[in-house]
Amino acid sequence: MPYGLLVVAIYTVVSIAGAQDTYTLTDEDRWKETQTAEKGTPTGQLAAARKALAAGEPLRAENLATRWIKRYPYDALIPEAYMIRGDALVAQGSYYSALYDYEFVARSHPSSAAFVQAITREYEIAKIFASGVRRKFLGMRLLLAYDEAQEIFIRVQERLPGSQLAEQAGLALGDFYYRRREMQLAADTYSVFIENYPHSESIPLARRRLIFANIASYKGPEFDDVGILEARAQLEQLEAISPAQAQRIGAQALILRINESEAEKMLTTAQWYLAINDPISAEYTIRTMILEHPNTIAATRGLRLIPLITPNLPAAVVAQMPDYSIYQEALLEAPSQQQSEAAETVTTEEEAANIEDLDAAHKRESEALEKIRKEKEAEEESINEAFEDAADSQDSSGSTDDSPKKDPTP
Questions:
Q1: In terms of CB atoms within 10 Å, which end of the chain has fewer, N or C?
Q2: Residue 410 pLDDT > 60
Q3: What mean pLDDT is predicted for residues 356-378?
Q4: Once rounded to an integer, what is the mean pLDDT over residues 314-326?
Q5: Residues contacting 164, CB < 8 A, separation 6+
């Protein structure tokens, strides 16, 4: 609902301190005017400003309320006059100017009936500013009002502690920081909200966003890890009090991720100790990392640094060191064994495939040799037949021409 229509609805049915016309709900479910403010009196003049605002004339209502405030600055209806002028300014889009009138009511008349209304109006304006609407400057919306929104959200909680409006303001402030990626402030705000309003319907949402804000506040292994440590504690608590919700957000996967990040930070710290030539601190950090987070990639990398650190350690420190070979067998050799078994399996499969290929090749080669042998035998047989034919032909021709002749001389 537009804010102007909300103002119209409020001032149509609400009566404050006799400053407006009075209406009664009849049996026919209709509003009937039972009292009319006299014209010319302060009550009547203020009622005219209210009617102008309800009729959709915010500029006229503002002028009437301004004149009334100047004419009757000490009247008992002065809080109502400031509320009317503030609502008229809101209807014109002058949110920042309206805050002055609402703040006057909140500070100067905390016991009036308009006090809670003024705080509520300020909260609505804070939500508008927090959404990115700019305040007017030189008639144009040029200036961001994020600071004003934060201040109002905090003031609402201070002025109406324990109320539903204060609860909404606390959650709205956390959401404001969360949207702007100010995760540390968002985590602090959600934590305060959970502490102040433990029975709120928004507690599940606040818990989830508190966890995500703490995780997102961690910037890397070179920075502080308080955020992820708190997130892990909150995830474990969530698993205890609401297992279904923890399962929906993937609590176990988040805890594994946090453990890996913490181990990575400890490994980075150990590497820094090595860089400054402090092997004792480096070994102690790696030892702590392996004991607290053994099933992490960082622990595996840390074990590979131990052989480089040990030669530079004093004998007393070496004597107190744990048996890293056990961890190396568990974390380093087991994966290597699995890899070797996998490699052997692959090799066996490859060898089987190669054997099959060789058998097929031998078979093809034998068939080719057999074919060549048969062709050679056929060729030799044909050559022998040719020689035999030639010999037979020479025998049949006799010695008339080619045989030697006998000498006739005795």
A1: C
A2: no
A3: 62
A4: 83
A5: none
pLDDT digits over 224-261, tens only?
888 899 999 999 999 999 888 888 888 999 999 999 99
List the one residue out of 205, 272, 267 whose CA is nearest residue 242.
205
- List, in order, residues 6 or more apart from 246 with CB less than 8 Å away: 235, 238, 239
Residue 346's Cβ-count burial label (10 Å; 0-12, 13-18, 19+) is exposed
Closest to 62 measured CA to CA, from 32, 94, 34:
94
Query: In this structure, how many other beta carbons lie within 10 angstroms of the beta carbon of residue 310?
Result: 14
Judged against a pLDDT cut of 50, whether residue 1 lies above it is answered with: no
385 pLDDT higher than 70: no
pLDDT of residue 14: 40
- Check: CB of residue 46 under 8 Å from CB of residue 81: yes
Helix (H) or strand (E) holding 56: none
Residue 73 confidence (pLDDT): 87
Q: How far apart are CA 121 and CA 140, in angstroms?
A: 22
Q: Report the candidate in 164, 160, 172 with the shortest Cα–Cα distance to residue 197.
A: 164
DSSP 8-state secondary structure symbol assigned to residue 405:
P
Task: Tell which residue, 156, 6, 14, has the closest CA to residue 80.
Answer: 14
Residue type, 253: A
Give Dmax over CA atoms of the chain in angstroms: 192
Strand ranges in 82-232 using DSSP code E only, listed in sequence order = 135-137, 140-143
Mean pLDDT of the region 41-46: 84
Hey, is 161 helix, strand or coil? coil
Q: Are 211 and 192 in contact (CB under 8 A)?
A: no
List % helix, strand, coil for the chain (3-state, nearest 5).
Answer: 70, 5, 25
Q: Which amino acid type is present at position 259?
A: N
Contacts 24+ apart (CB under 8 A), 330-334: 330/294, 331/294, 331/299, 331/300, 331/303, 332/300, 332/303, 332/304
Q: Residue 332 gets which letter from DSSP?
A: I
Residue 13 has pLDDT above 60, yes or no: no
Dist CA 39 CA 21 (whole Å) = 11
